[in-house]
Amino acid sequence: MDIVRNKNMLAAAVLIVAVWAGILIFHPPRVTQDTFTYFESMEVLATGEVPDGFTANRIITTYLGMRTVMALETVFGDVKIAWAVMNSIFFFATSFFFYKIIAILFGRHTIAMFGTVLVATNYALLANALDYVMDVGGWAFYLAALYFSLRYMMMDNIRFVVYGAVAVGIGCFFKEYAFLGLIALACAILYQRRQNIGALVREAALVGGISLVPISLFYIWAYDQYGYSYLNWFSYAKEAMPAYYASKPVEYIKVLGSLYTFGWFLFVGGVYLAMRYKTAFLESRALWYVAFVGISALPVFVWPAITQRIFFPIVPFLVMVSCFVFLRYELRLVYFLPLVAAYVAVSYAMDSYVLDAVNVDPLLNFLR
Fold first, then answer.
1. φ, ψ at 129 (rounded to 5°)
2. CB neighbours of residue 268 within 10 Å
3. pTM > 0.85: yes or no
4. If pLDDT is split at 50, 70 and 90, which confidence band does 362 have?
């Protein structure tokens, strides 16, 4: 109802829906290699029969995501439609939470709209939002936790940090990206309660209990049922992934380059402006929040796989810093439209044209 009554939020919602429609047209849902492992796991959940050699990695990482698809399938009568509906809702939530974050941080609807475009049309989100995978669910709850962390820091109301903890506690059943939100919440509590150790301990314990106790109990149950834990999943990835990469530095450059493309020009400009003007841009508390968002995304570098999908959680931080440029040149935002348009066009065309046409390997041979 707030969206309908508020013209700015309504405009943001229309923008997000337009991007979603573009995905349906130019990047419709795809069956991926991962899709079949989800189908197998949903069959195990539905029947209770565990086939020989079954690996429960999808159950321990996306249990509620699969349960949601199974529930929606009874409504829509088709598992793929159910999956697309769930992911569409999460795509909207991811984009809209980010719009709200930028609107609060910068207090400018126009800047929030520019920032939302950069997130909603990011290649990783476009390429995976509606595919038959589960990542966007974890991203949505991560952005929700970031939003509530900001509200907590701005209003100093424990209610919001509890909401954030609930987002993490539920989201980690959809995809483990939600755990990153717990880092942002922890940083926010440390900042807010740095002069009150007792309150810091109480709030940290409350957030930790809400976020971690349910998933910990679930992991115990899953290990009892399937003899499989998250440590097994991480160990497998750690052993298997290195064989795919001849050079990690080259992979980082390729993945990060394709992840944010023309946005890197804005990010570099934002870093320069933040270092030069500091609190002349944003108050100290808001700058700390942006730093906390960056810190919360760092664990993606620990995961053995190096893909745009794994690295999407750093995009909100990159866009927040990029928005410093929009704030500095707010009266000249029209000049940035060609750059933003190029970013959007490349994101939509990445799989169909750009990745096949652009080969940077010869330029990076010195890193191998």
1. -60, -45
2. 13
3. yes
4. low
User: Can you tell me the distance from the alpha carbon of 117 to that of 143, in angstroms, rounded to the nearest whole number?
Assistant: 15
Residue 282 has phi, psi (to 5 degrees) of -130, 155
Calpha distance 123→351 (Å, rounded): 9
Cα separations in angstroms, 343 against 9, 283, 340: 23, 29, 5
**Does residue 2 carry a pLDDT above 70?**
no
pLDDT in tens, 203-262: 999 999 999 999 999 999 999 999 999 999 988 888 876 656 667 788 898 899 999 999
Residue 361 pLDDT > 80:
no
User: Which pLDDT band holds residue 41 (cuts at 50, 70, 90)?
Assistant: very high
**Nearest to residue 184, comparing CAs of 314, 64, 324, 95?**
314
Report the alpha-carbon distance of residue 323 to residue 316 in Å, rounded.
11
**302 within 8 A of 118, measured Cβ to Cβ:** no
Q: Which long-range contacts (CB under 8 A, 24 or more apart) does 282-286 make?
A: 282/105, 282/106, 285/153, 285/154, 285/191, 286/105
What is the secondary structure of 273-318 as a DSSP string? HHHHHGGGTS-HHHHHHHHHHHHHHGGGGTSS---HHHHGGGHHHH
Compute the distance between CA of residue 262 and CA of residue 121 in angstroms, rounded to an integer.
Answer: 12
For residue range 50-101, what is the model confidence (pLDDT) as tens digits?
A: 999 899 999 999 999 999 999 999 999 999 999 999 999 999 999 999 999 9
Tokens of 77: 């009568």
Taking alpha carbons only, the member of 151, 94, 133 closest to residue 289 is: 151
| Residue 336 · residue 329 · CB < 8 Å | yes
Q: Are 11 and 87 in contact (CB under 8 A)?
A: no
* Among candidate residues 177, 184, 179, the one with its CA nearest the CA of residue 151: 184
Q: Is 10 helix (H, G, I), strand (E, B) or coil?
A: helix
Find out whether 114 and 320 touch, Cβ atoms under 8 Å. Answer: no
